[in-house]
Amino acid sequence: MAATVDDLVRLCNAPGRMFVCPECGHRQQAPGFCTEDGVSLADAGDDVLLGSTLGSYRVTALIGRGGMGLVYRAVHPTIGSRVAVKVLTRECAADRTLVERFFAEARAVNLIRHDNIVSVLDLASLPDGRPFIVMELLEGRPLSTLIERSGPLPLGAAITIVSELLDGLSAAHDKGIVHRDLKPDNVYITRSGRVKVVDFGIAKLRPEQGGVSDATRTGSLMGTPFYMSPEQAVGAPVDARSDLYAVGVILFEMVTGQRPFSARNLYELLKAHVEAMPLAPRVLRADIPEQLETVLLHALQKDPGYRYQSARDFKAGLLQASAAVPPGSFVPPATLVDGAATSALGSAPYATPPPGFTSGAVAHTPLGSRPGLPTPQAGEAPTRRAGRFGYFAVATCGVVVLATLGSCVTCFGLTLSHEPRTVDVQLGGTDRVTITPSNFEFTTFTGHAESAAQKQDSSARLSSIRATGRLHDRGIDLTHGGVARVVYGFRTPSGCLDVEVTQAGLTTRRSDQCSPGTVGQPRCTVRQLLQRVEQRGGSLGNDASAALTTRDQGPASWTLQSGGREYAFDDDC
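The structure corresponding to this sequence follows.
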């Protein structure tokens, strides 16, 4: 039976029921308007904190809810200053470890003290023992909201936002603090355009700062899977470079509108972070300059030793890449928060680049106009285009590579098409790898080949890469001629192992010989190798070869041959 007006009045006036002003926190037992601010009173329900006083502040409204606590807006009754109050939930307050992390967040932020890190003003406990933190109130939007609303952001604005994010991380890392849970939800853009890093709830501190030792952390998964570094994904100890990987994922999402890895379940997602190579961003968005793509892929290296070694180095890379970014894309972040930007891709004339950034005369290519990609239809949203391109690109580069035990090969037929053909190689069960034989980027495929080899022998280590065929800036054409192939050589305690990729499929087999020594994941891409050949005044014909090996146990080096000429380079891109 529907409630009558009298029923609602009796319910509202029930003993103990409170109504709170969302502006000043004044409360009373009857609904109506606040006599001080003239706004409607909000029903507090069973939330006893609304309208109560915590320290010097009166709680006015619940503004956020997370896994560990609640976030309220509060106001100082006398001077009117507004703050955010983060309160640990009752369940979490009963867990000593979680309470320690909660306190660690306040200590971490207080130690850093940087304009790009949210400020902590006070730390105390409620009468029931639950701890709370008083923090600066951020008015604006989380980065995740901007991405969801606009899709790919203007390139210049993305560089500006990430540069401020890296400034905050530099200050944190200088204090020995690793955030460990960087994601767009934890990057806030204020209405003034300031970037703020929030939520240091699982930050790693040194023991003397009140942190938990690495020994107790090892083997545990901490963070958000979509943004976890490979070392986080396997529960290994992390350092500042793990944060930089997460920033790389965030930047990838900002400029393409999608994350570098997606999967059907948590296992496949973590496996992709550890083994899969990210899709080249320029496949998803044609106007990304090659310099910016290089910075992105460098930040997403699997081995921490191959990534940027500090936030300052990462920012320096962005500063250099900004020279190739159209100046009109340097949109003030505040305009994105207010919704004033008229183009998600930065085609409108906005502000000039901020101090420290330079811009070159690079032609702005609309998304979808790159040869080989579908032309966007009128009215089609950028995020939808990015999603469609993402499907195409995943089919090009593959997501997860597994190999069955023993020697295996899967063959398939090819049909002619105007578009590059992608081919599924079934590896048993639901495991497969998808490649594009005409555009096979064999350097970025190395992690997959290693995964295939280690399925036969977990101790397999890469010793060489040998590619034969027609090379171009997107890889090798395995469909050209009858001998085009890429062979990844591996050393094992029991002998040698080859993983071979041809247009007929992928084969893993034992080998009689392999190169001495081992090499790491290649640092140079095929495009970079070809550029080095051109810098020496050379060119490669239809029949060329490329080999990555070590010389006398020294640094890894590439040797390219074509038409009787040979070019040698260190693998130091």
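Residues 1-15, 207-220, 340-419 have pLDDT under 50 and may be disordered.
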